[in-house]
Amino acid sequence: MSEKTVRRDLDALGRAGQPVYSEPGRNGGWRLAGRGRTDLSGLTLDEARALFLAVGSGPGALSGDVARAVSKLLRALPEPFRADAELAANSILVDPTWWWDRPVDEPGPPAHLAVLRQAVLTQRRVELAYVDRAGTATMRTVDPLGLVSKGSTWYLVAGTSKGLRTFRVARVQDASLTDDPVERPVGFDLAAEWRRVVAGFDGLRPQVHATIRLDARALPWLRAQFGADMALAETEQPGADGHETVVVGGPSTTVIAEHLAGWGARITVVEPDEVRAELCRLGQELVALHAPDAGP
Question: I need a surface site. Which of 47, 161, 184, 232 has the fewest CB within 10 A?
Fold first, then answer.
């Protein structure tokens, strides 16, 4: 069999979805990923990147069964694919909590999210047309390092000539991939950088706190709602009644009350009285609007 025939057959296998890769060295050669089987280890490089980008948060930020499953997937991939797949997994972060001072105003994915996701996947620089919160339009060339979804709002964390910056994707007017590779800072950690960004915003807003009690089993859901604005109070173990005392924070008593109102009788506000009064006011408004005799 001629070398030309071998290369033609290798190309045909690749087009058929069976990734073929080379191993250098004395005992090297050409191999089929996954030994020619269509399973997880038979993913192409692009498929592996896309899969681990979808996983998000990175294996180190996950827990329990999910973290173990991600680790197994990484080990199942061919060696040449693992670094790219792990980089993809660490290039997207999901922060389920909302910004306190902004309502949900992005019902769908931003227009240029797909391009930025591709830039993160392929580690290519991007030219951005961007409008900041003051309405100033600029053109920038950035190194896309990761994407963050906070609530329904997407952000791009990128390197610039002035250091790391965070861009709200909805404000991107245009995004074009370049052929230049991204310059990734040594030791860059998306989760750590996002914590720094959020802490910076938190430091700009006034903080009001409320102490509440609730069933300890509901703590994960409350934490998903309040995020870093929730902390256990003095007791770290549930009381004899199975309830826990926690402190939650926000920019005002009204905002805290609005977030707690949906919990109904499942939570009790211990203090301050201002939050309790806001809950009463909200309850009276709801009764006035929705009581059987209130009309349409």
Answer: 161
